[in-house]
Structures are given as C-alpha cells and as structure tokens.
Amino acid sequence: MAPLVHGFDWPDRLVVGTVGQPGERTFFLQARAGKQLVSVALEKEQSAALAERIEEVLDELMAQDGNPYSVPALTPEGLVDNDPLDQPVEEQFRAGAMGLGWDPSTAQIVIEAFPIVEIDADDLDLGELDLEEIDVVEIEPTEVMVVRIPVGTARAFAKRTREVVGAGRPICPLCRIPMDSDEHVCELPDGFR
User: Fold this and answer.
1) How far are the Cα atoms of 7, 15, 16, 139, 151 from residue 79, in angstroms, in the given order?
2) How do strand 4-8 and strand 13-19 relate by DSSP bridges?
3) Domain membership of residue 151 as a residue range
4) Residue 77 φ then ψ, to 5°
5) Percent of the chain that is helix, strand, coil (3-state, to 5)
6) Rounded mean pLDDT of the chain?
7) Nearest-5° Cα angle at 181, 47 to 44
8) Which of 37, 55, 83, 135 has the CA that lies 20 to 30 A from 19?
9) What CATH number is attached to the domain comprising 156?
C-alpha cells in the first residue's frame, strides 16, 4: 500500500518550534498551507542537523558561478518568522529518517520526514547470525511528509531553527552539560578540579 503523503509544494509556513520548557521541550517540524496543518515531532539533534545541512546546501548553490539560483547570503527580511507554532499542535508522527534534496527544475529545497519504524524483536529470528546471509527487508513507511521551499524561505527556516535549538538550557562552560538551575554541579572528568 502506498504511504499517505503530507505534501506541501509551496507552504504558507514551515517552521521548527517547541512545546514545553527548556530541558523538557518537544521539537516539531510544522508545515501549513491554507487549512492543512501537519506537525511532525523531531529530536533536538535532528532539528539542528537539518538546519546545518540546509545551510550547507544553500552555500554550495550560492557558490556556483554567478549564483544562478539567486540564493541569498542572509535571511531575507520579509521572511523572518518568530511566531510560535500554529495551534493546535497535534503530532502526526515522530520522525525517524529524514531526507534533504535539491530540485533544480523548481529551484526548491526538498525536505522529507519519515516516521520511526518499530520492529518487534520477538518477530525476528536471528538464530545463528551470519551477516552474509541476512536478507534486507525494505519497509514501506505508512506516511511521509514532503515539503518543497524556495531558497529564501530555506535560509529563513534554517536561521529560525538554529535559534530555536539554541534557546534551550545554557551549557556549562566547564563540563559542557546543560545546566538545569543555578545549583548546577559539574561532572568534570577525572583530573579536573
């Protein structure tokens, strides 16, 4: 059966936002087109990696001779979006694998999010494990989110995402662990005092 595709070719809005307090936040990739609203839960690290990779792709495209796709170096002022997530935030699925691509025919960044696929370990018969005899089984996802955005929107999306990721708990400069309160106790490696 073909997966349910939540497609957004030119969304009215695409953002990463959070629900909850720092240290307990849930990250969401949210797209809206008209009345269609889809929110996909992400890990903080997925959000950061997505923003970083989008910036890399945009910088590579901008560096091409003559910048043929008119990729902006900075976020266009009219595309800045600092508003909270649209309500209601209802998790469509939790993202497992994500894909990022470039469509030169439309000059758009393409973002794909696939749900986590859970496999019951009891259903697997591993017996004597011989890596050469393992059959790879491709599992078709039940749904997927596919969003296509122009380069200016992609630059604004990446900037906002980096800001949202960075708005969490401050990092201790000594032990590099997030600080939950003013009563933070460093967990320094042996030999450091």
Assistant:
1) 21, 11, 14, 38, 11
2) unpaired
3) 4-117+139-166
4) -55, -40
5) 25, 30, 45
6) 88
7) 5
8) 55
9) 3.30.2450
Model's pTM, two decimal places?
0.81
- Please tell me the least confidently modeled range out of 36-45, 97-106, 123-132: 123-132
- CA–CA dist 11, 147 (Å, integer): 7
pLDDT band at 139 (very low <50, low <70, confident <90, very high): confident
**Per-residue pLDDT tens over the stretch 157-176:** 999 999 999 887 777 777 76
Q: Per the structure block, which two tokens stand in for 8?
A: 């957004």
- From the list 72, 75, 74, 112, the residue with the least C-alpha distance to 96 is 112
Q: Count CA within 13 A, CB hemisphere, residue 55.
A: 15
* Residue entry with tokens 């450091």: 192
Residue 183 in domain: no
